[in-house]
């Protein structure tokens, strides 16, 4: 690495100042769940109910009345659903004894299929290869000491038998057995109340917190903005609004989808003959709020109950078929249409978040895993400290197209680059591929090369990747003789990638890069100044235009003078000059004036690429050309439009 270039910064390591706060946060989430869990539930419910509160407030109802009415509606809905589920569960518990015979029969049939074959196989193996038994040894003759111990043991046994036969003397201890009294009705009620008091009490705390959060919604937002800092007022307000909108939209759409799923599933289960269809449909709708795992659990419960109520297997198969068909329809057709990828979370991130929050907060954490993770992702897009979570958890790619090209070029993964490029070019042209992928990736490579972040070996690897990718995507297909001539005359050891690509093209098309017997003003000339930058940009533009059957050819200021070219100026209809850099502006203006004089009938244009940081200002260039474009796709569209018959 050259000494005059700046050294790359040292890699950041995990410091104690980052590990300790992260550990404290995890401990706080786990051991403080009794306090944090109701707050989280109330905060998320407030985001869901806030649109209803605003709509009621617009009708003329006060903020307090709208809040209380909204919370009351939610509480009534939860109590009604809980009562229906409780009644159904009591009915199922009462019917369980009737299903014991079917359950026993199913267990036996499953055992016959799964366990019995292995037992028979084991018995056959034992019959073929019986275990060797040790030969019986003659009984040893007892010694004198052994005979003495046997006599003592017999005497002790006789004494114990005599003591047992002796009647008990008053005053001796009597064995006592303690038996618990059967529970009374009061004990049963007390135990039942103690078991339900925890969830009911937490639900009451959540409702109280929900009321106050909704009443002080604006005040809490202002305090949060003040904590973040007034200097970041714009990003903070945007983060809050996007979080509220995203969570509200997600929960509302998910609630509608799951409710519809439960209604349709309940009707289907009732039609095929599953008892208590409303109960299992409600449980399935609730379990669908738990990502991925909930669907499997609901299907397993319905299958087990179907096996319990039916002596055969038809009810199990019908119920599983109905559930699978409905789930596939909802997951692949309905949900993408209703809310699509509104969460923006990657599938793996959803599973990991469910595992994390489930381990932290149990079943409540499973239900809240998706909205909590969604809040972290949305806030992470605007808060720098949480930005890594937004990158890791979102479904979008971690790198953009240019960064991905540069990363794969550094590793020399040309095959994967070409595969992605061919997939991209099924819906776009090579010009757009250059604008969106190739040129941004080369800009990153050039920046790292100037800063000394890549060495010469990596630079050469990137150049070879560029040559191969360009030839694969926009290369000409020569015959065998031309291919042998190209391999003999073109060297890949040259430092100028654009010159290599031009030599390859000229080896296939000839030194004039095509026929000279063409109509006037039919050639598009792309002209550079002989630098490595200009040669590459010129060659990529030529190949992009030739993909659309445009007779594009290139020339360079470093080309040797050929008097025969002066007679061919009438063939050029459009000339593209590479956009000048600030330090080469004077030379560029001189060449532009000479080109305008040499090609009086041609349109002179230039392309200022958005990633060219060293480019001169457009105001200083505009008077020397007829047109300034800003991408290869614009140049392609301009030339194609100019060639249409008027």
Automatic annotation (TrEMBL):
The chain crosses the membrane at residues 35-53, 65-91, 196-215, 255-283, 289-308, 315-334. The keyword DNA repair does not apply. One of its GO terms (cellular component) is plasma membrane. Its main location: membrane. It is found in: Cell membrane. Keywords: Cell membrane, Membrane, Transmembrane, Transmembrane helix, Transport. Pfam families: AI-2E_transport. InterPro entries: AI-2E-like. It is a multi-pass membrane protein. It comes from the Bacteria. GO terms for biological process: transmembrane transport. PANTHER family: PERMEASE PERM-RELATED, TRANSMEMBRANE PROTEIN. Belongs to the autoinducer-2 exporter (AI-2E) (TC 2.A.86) family. This is AI-2E family transporter.
